[in-house]
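Changelog-adjacent note: as of this version, every example in the card shows the full chain rather than a window. The one below runs 371 residues end to end.
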Amino acid sequence: MKFIVNSSVLLKELQKLNGIISTSNTLPILDNFLFEIEDGKIRMIASDLETTMISEISTESASNGKITIPSKILIDTLKTFSNQPLTFLIDTETKGIEISSENGNYKLAGQDANEFPKIPELSSSSSITLGSSILSNAINKTLFASGNDELRPVMSGVFCELSEEHITFVATDAHKLVKHTRKNINSNSNSSFILPKKPLSLIKNNIDSESDIAIDFNETNVKFSLENTTLICRLIDGKYPNYDAVIPKENPHKLVINKQELLNSIKRVSIYASKTTHQIKLKVAGSQLQITSEDLDFANKAEERLTCSYEGEDIEIGFNSRFVIDMLNNIGSEQICLEMSAPNRAGIILPLDGQDENEDTLMLVMPVMLN
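Full-length structure tokens:
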């Protein structure tokens, strides 16, 4: 079997797929890419058993066939080539692979393609189509808030809830929560599923155009179809917590401030906070916001004052600065509103601009008890 392919095109596609390949694969064959050559096309496939990614490019080939090629040595080799055609010659009996470039020949050993795991088929699936910018925005706004606790796998992903009126994405790690809703997208039926973190990161990194993305899903798997890339992943099994129950509905204390000013101030003040709690204190009185932090172990202390627009009674509330910084970095607006009800109740951060009229984003952060 023989095929000819452009080195730069091949490298670009394989680097997308390489994000799937785990450093601790249980099956040695998963350290390889599966190449399927058929009718002038190469389908390249990578899998870690949970997630499978498929990419397709054109090739010059008179024969059809398939082979698995070790991923690391192939990518390391391709990185060193200038843009040029490469000829792959595969011995189907011995699984030997020879790559010929303008300057030389390289030989490596492949493995039998039949040992590679089968691509999951989605039977009786539902589907929805999203604009790539809409999906990318939803992933950016929510993914950072998902948890890492292996004991609570449902919270390690992003919960996706479809209804006839809108689509909602939710992520939480029990300390922070983000709810992002798009109103102008609807589904034929009400359904929900939990998307794992790894495939969402891969999709976010591979969305590069204003195209539509088809999403097919059933009880166990979801498939994302981009232009020449398909990603199939297993859904997280379990019931997502009732996130609406933790969002306080009555928040009489409302603070409006420039996001960047607040973010820069919290970054500076948090340097002086305790390295275990990362606690900062916000004290609002009139139109003045005072941000303080203290690390008693090292006698470190910082204080800053900012002018803000505020309605409500004076309040003092403590937050973990890392969570607030994460939220402000991902909220995507210049002016924000911080809504509070009491020092022991969650604070809510809302964007006041930079949003599409059909989208709503709510970020919630749990308070830290002030000592």
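Structural remarks: The chain has three domains: 2-115, 126-244, 247-368.
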